[in-house]
Amino acid sequence: MNIKSRKKRLERLDKKHLWHPFTQMKEWCEESPVIITEGRGSFLKDITGRWYIDGVSSIWVTVHGHRKKEIDTAIKEQIDKISHSTLLGLTHPPAIELAEKLVQTVNPQPVTRNRELSRVFYSDNGSTSVEIALKIAYQYWQHKGIREKKMFVSLKNAYHGDTVGAVSVGGIDLFHNIFSPLLFKTYNVPSSYCYRCELKRKHPSCKLYCLAKMEDTLKKHHKEIAALIIEPMVQGAGGMIVSPPGYLKGVRKLCNKYNILMIADEVATGFGRTGKMFACEHEGVRPDILCIAKGITGGYLPLAATMTTEKIYSAFLGRYKDFKTFFHGHTYTGNQLACAAALANLQLFKSERTLKKMEGKIEILRNGLSRIAELPNVGDVRQKGFMTGIELVRDKKTKEPYPLEDKMGVKVCNIARDKGLLIRPLGNVIVLMPPLSISNQELKKLIQITAESIQEAVC
Ligand SMILES: *Cc1c(COP(=O)(O)O)cnc(C)c1O
């Protein structure tokens, strides 16, 4: 079959049988999709042979590029031993060795055993890692005999995944409102979205007034609050909202003061995306529970982990008859192939000095963004490392947003696609999040295409 008829056939079958995530399928079926058949480094190839820059790391997961030899080899070698056996009642080397490496990676500085994030509970995606964190936090206080601590604090604009528990602590109305009757109640506090501060303050003269508002809630309700959940430094799906300096540290202090567990959801920010291995490191913060997924396997296979301190873990210890067991688990938990990929991913951070090499590229991105910020319909640009959001506005002075039905973000991304760059927006926010391994030249190209696409879309 020639390429043209193969593409046609696949397109027809896609439209007949697939239901794509976060996609209005009616519109999807009116357009012609890009069918990806191959990847290499920072690039993806479609079925017609055209190459594109993977500008959002295949939705925030690719770390060292596609077809990275070391990860490919690690998976192939593991396949020759075994691809999957369970962690229920059994164990295996990749899960054990990865747990050790993860503990070393998330605790770069030595700390007392009780506060070290020393325990790894595996699952297979970011949402489940969050569900697990919420259930551990809840059950922890039950075991501690502080039964009233059943509530969670969540942030406006937060995104923690799409399962019902994760949606309960989410704060994006467009995604979450319709499900509200299904969700558990939380204390929802303002986020640190400085460009559109819901408290009508200005940074830095606000002196982090959003923290003061958070404290009001904690002060009033801490006796019922089990935990607070936060995406450290950057609220990703909410629009790449970067928190101002001191904010994260302030949240940690408040959690300490009011005896509330702090859950850091580093599903998006983890594994170098913000320029440090984990975003919490920017402010020297240690969470009590840490959720990691997306970049953990270098963007190869589904895997996630929820890590806790020894203090939390030990509250679950007892005889079987005490029923303190954490009754939770997913079938593919700790899958060997995924763990093998994750081990190779961590090894590459060392051998290739990935974070060090990022420094210059973060500067290139910063320079490029400062030029983009001057464009007439760009209201705000936000960057933490390689996590970037460009917020488009109809009116730069009044910050009037484009109505969502204008699909301005989608328009920009469609133009970019025709120019050889694949990116996906969040509403009016253009997201750039290339693989950490992107070259200087590729990065400059990415910025150039983005700037041109914005200019063409808004005129
Ligand atoms: C993507 C994401 C999740 C959900 O991860 P999935 O693997 O899609 O379930 C959770 N939290 C954050 C911060 C994310 O960015």
Notes on the protein architecture:
The chain starts with a helix and ends with a helix. The model has no long low-confidence stretch (mean pLDDT 97). The protein is of the alpha/beta class and 459 residues long. The chain is 37% helix and 17% strand. It is built from 15 helices and 17 strands. α9 packs parallel to α10 and α13 runs parallel beside α15 (440-458). It has helices at 3-17, 25-28, 57-60, 69-79, 93-106, 126-143, 164-168, 173-176, 209-221, 247-257, 310-314, 336-351, 354-372, 408-418, 440-458; strands at residues 36-40, 43-46, 51-54, 117-123, 151-155, 187-189, 225-230, 234-235, 241-242, 261-265, 289-292, 304-309, 378-384, 387-395, 400-401, 421-422, 429-432. The protein has two domains: 34-64 and 353-458, Aspartate Aminotransferase, domain 1 (Alpha-Beta Complex), CATH 3.90.1150; 76-351, Aspartate Aminotransferase, domain 2, CATH 3.40.640.10. Strands 4-12-11-10-7-5-6 form a seven-stranded mixed β-sheet, with helices on both faces. A four-stranded mixed β-sheet has the order 1-2-3-16. Strands 13, 14, 15 and 17 form a four-stranded antiparallel β-sheet that branches. Pyridoxal-5'-phosphate binds at residues 125-127, 130, 159-161, 231, 236-237, 265, 267-268, 293-294.
